[in-house]
Amino acid sequence: MNASGLLSEKIIPKLKRKVYKMVERPSMLYNAECWPLNEKHNIKLCVAEMRVLRWMSGFTLRSMIQNEYIHKKVGVSPVDDKI
Fold it and tell me: Which domain of life is it from (predicted)?
């Protein structure tokens, strides 16, 4: 299944949130309970998550939108809370 076309669409925000929660986040956190998680890994996970969320919501880094606003708009909690 190719979800990139679905996630980049400007419509269907509830479906995007569900796809993110059911596909993207579990694939990023797969087997995370076995990792020796340090600050470097945590930062990389946060960066990867924000890259996907910005892409889903149509923002870029040049938009200068705060991460908290994007999390609130998409309706997901930060990946830090899930780890």
Answer: Eukaryota
